[in-house]
Specification:
By secondary structure, the protein is an all-alpha fold. Helix content is 75%, strand content 0%. The N and C termini lie far apart (58 Å). Keywords: Membrane, Transmembrane, Transmembrane helix.
Length: 59
């Protein structure tokens, strides 16, 4: 019985967090920006699509 309540609370917390992110424009765009930097750019670099370092990493 306790496990079901805990699972329900975790699920509700996840849904509440998603609702907050999708409703707040600033948090929504920051989340998309972080998604770009953390997942898409490293994947493109590993696949050889970038070819060289980005300008902000060059010294």
């Amino acid at each position: 019985m306790c496990e079901q309540k805990e699972e329900a609370r975790i699920g509700n917390a996840i849904l509440e967090g998603l609702h907050y992110v999708l409703r707040s424009p600033i948090v929504f765009w920051l989340t998309l920006l972080l998604l770009l930097f953390n997942f898409i750019l490293p994947t493109a670099d590993c696949l050889g699509a970038a070819g060289h370092q980005p300008l902000f990493l060059q010294l």
